[in-house]
From TrEMBL:
GO terms for molecular function: transferase activity. Pfam families: Glycos_transf_2 (PF00535). SUPFAM superfamilies: Nucleotide-diphospho-sugar transferases. The keyword RNA-binding does not apply. Keywords: Transferase. This is Glycosyltransferase family 2 protein. InterPro entries: Glyco_trans_2-like (IPR001173), Nucleotide-diphossugar_trans (IPR029044). It comes from Alteromonas pelagimontana. Residues 293-436 form the Glycosyltransferase 2-like domain.
Amino acid sequence: MKNFPVRVLKASFSLLPERLKNQLRKQYGLKAWYGERLRRSSLAYEVPSLRKIRKLLTDNLLNQKEFLCRKEAVLDQYSAKINVLIVGDGNVAATLKSLQCIDPVINTVWVDKHCVPGDCDSRDDFVVRAYYEDDARFTTKTLVIEAGIQLHQQLALPILMLPARGDLCYFDSISVNDKERLSEYRFLPDWNPDLQISSAYINEAVLLNTPMSLQFIDRFVTHGIAATMAYIYLHSTQLNITHQPFVLSVRKSLALSDMNRLSQELSGNTTIVNVTPGLLKVQWPIKNQPLVSLIIPTFNGKDLVKMCIESILQKTTYLNYEILLIDNNSDDPEALAYFSELELHPKIRLLRYPHPFNYSAINNFAVKHAQGEVIGLINNDIEVITPEWLEYMVGHAIREDIGCVGAKLLYPDDRIQHAGVVLGYGGGAGHAHKYFPRYHPGYMNRLIATQNYSAVTAACLLVKKSIYEGVGGLDEENLEVAFNDVDFCLRVLETGVRNLYCAEAELYHHESVSRGLDITVEKAARFNRELTYLQSKWKKYIDHDPAYNPNLTLKRENFAIKGPREYR
């Protein structure tokens, strides 16, 4: 009942006329107060009940069916036949039975020779043959599906009739309970190699469209879908992997054997820290132990800076780093005296930036003085939790195909402040899983799984100095305070590398203590200008964030399914 007053206030606000709502939204002090009360309640992240999920999912599937039927009407009826290859040691008979819904487009169904049911060849609906290694007859589009997975009876056919996209394509799925009732949805992001490594999120069915992808047929048979997708990332970066956000299959639960095969695939490239069903924790090697320059801007804030720097010095296990403390016009005598003491420490340099506050300009100034190969942007209100935080983050930052690396940041009350940035939240950008409890696994384990996001927050961000300088650093002119990190990450993303959320690196973020909340009219106006700039420049990512899914809501940061009003 402790959240009852907040619930009443929230419900009352929803009943107000829109004009009055807009007037209240301009009361910035009241808005900040309400936001703080909401954050402290469980309502801030509020995962929908199973009953509501089933309602939203049922509506979503109907919406998908209507959309696909409109598409089907303009396609050539059953113009392209496909092969189906069933792999793995699951329930082959169940998968075969479900294939009847796509009988019009099936050429031949192949089953691993070790798993062929005795009555396969006598089926009336389609031909079933045993697959033997190095079979040369796979020259046409092929659906590879794990044994035990069943196709969605209403959606599978129109989905497979869609024009081929990329060399390899994968799809969304749902799961049902023992009573065949909807119980879970898996609305996936676009190709996300690091999420594949950490959670094997593609593990049910893939469509091979070209000879380049068909060459992996044998590996799909011997290693399964999850491990083969990781292998493709590690060994065939030229393969164009695409995603169709439609429900093709009804899923199984991920077996530990799937994760074990995945860990074997990765063991030559990473250190396997832990393997559990649905989650693989790995650490990437750090060659040559590069110097990391940790940049901490501050205005006064002696207590914050002391907490931040002492936690770094006392807890961090990675030792090759320097700290650049950037004093931006501090005038508190105690703070100035403390900063002078810090300057005597062999790992710390004190730089002074005697200009008006501009977060972007301060960091750009500091990077010019940084000696490290890797840059770390660190807020002065950060406090280390995980001693190995820097080892994990540096291991990712020095990978050739990785750009910006962000951490899991927590409020002091152990709720999530940052676990990756999603474009489109609130019309701009927001934090995935914001306000979730620290140990919550999140949607599809995405709170505890290291993965790629389009952007991460600069409150704790690592990036190679060469990349930082290559894209021109943070935007000092248009984004002085807000969204400069999002803009920076997207410019890095556009160079062809991926940004990453490192779930293993946990730190506290005493958010915005150093500069206060944007509750004044002037600050709110600046925020709105910077939001408008972001919306104009990065519309394509706000309209479609590849790390998200168009079936998920942008109204809240909890990965819930869209509500009825959100469909266009």
